[in-house]
Amino acid sequence: MILAWSIDADFLVCRMPELEPPFRPREKLLELQRHFQNVHKHTYLKGRYDAVTSVGIPLALAASSLFLIASGVLDAQGRGVYNMSNGIGKKE
Fold it and tell me: Which residues, in sequence order, are CB contacts of 55 under 8 Å at separation 6+?
């Protein structure tokens, strides 16, 4: 697409060529819009992969954090986040 620039009355004006075809047909956009407006879920869970990013990733992060903390408390060799933060098992 080539843009034509001109100066009219102290304004820089961009004159676009004839309208280009849209990326998606209007009917398809309206169909998708109707679909998402009729889904009765929270806004952040409407998309296809939104449940993974909004629910799965925070749960995995919480589980891994709890595992690291618990492994430090239960581990006899003094490894883990809890022991490191409290200086347990630190070599002199």
Answer: 45
